[in-house]
Amino acid sequence: MKIDAIFSLLKRPGQRTVSVEEMQAAIEAGAMEGSTRATGFKREMLELAGGGLTVGDVQTRLQYPTTRAVCDAVESRRLLAVDDNGTKLFPAFQFDGGQIIPAMNDILQAVPNANPWAILQYMVRGDEGLGDDLPMDLIRQGDHAIERAVRFARTLED
């Protein structure tokens, strides 16, 4: 069935038929608005995280011999990476100088099926059960603070 025929079926008494061009423009505008919101969300999350490092940046910072070693750290759940339109970015809060904060492994192991963007949002915005404490700060503190961050991270998979 042609698209014009479909639109004619959608016409209601007393309303004009929407043209294909008008429908396409509306769809594109909606997609663009959704894309703009998603881009804004990603930028905000990365800003709150102290920025996003590229694979090359992480390789240099951690003194890894190859970018494959960086990918291995992500696959073994020691390092968080988010995908930004095909580019892997690594939130800066998870590094302490030339090392990955060890508690990142605890967080990531607790949420093996969670979306990386959801994990990032949790880390930088927290959870109401944590009050004003942010997980990205808690992972730099003692065992009790880390356990709190891990416990509430588990709710990402509920």
Structural notes for this entry:
- It is a single chain.
- This protein has 158 residues and is mainly alpha-helical.
- The protein has helices at 3-10, 20-48, 55-62, 67-75, 103-110, 116-125, 135-138, 143-153; strands spanning 52-53, 82-84, 87-91, 95-96, 99-100.
- The chain has a 3-stranded antiparallel sheet with strand order 1-3-2. A two-stranded antiparallel sheet has the order 4-5.
- Mean pLDDT is 85; it is low at 1-13.
List keywords for this structure.
158 residues, mainly alpha, three-stranded antiparallel sheet, two-stranded antiparallel sheet, 8 helices, 55% helix
Arithmetic mean pLDDT: 85
Bin the strand percentage. Answer: 5-15%
Distance between the termini: 43 Å
The total beta strand count reads: 5
By secondary-structure content and strand pairing, the structural class works out as: mainly alpha
Query: Which regions have little confidence, pLDDT < 50, spanning 5+ residues?
Result: 1-13
Q: What order do the strands of the largest sheet run in, or round the barrel if closed?
A: 1-3-2
Determine Rg (CA atoms, Å).
22 Å
- Overall number of domains: 1
- Globular, elongated, flat, extended or rod-shaped: what is the shape? globular
The portion of residues assigned to helices is 55-70%
What summary fits the major beta sheet?
A: 3 strands, antiparallel
Order of helices and strands, N to C? HHEHHEEEEHHHH
Count of DSSP helices? 8
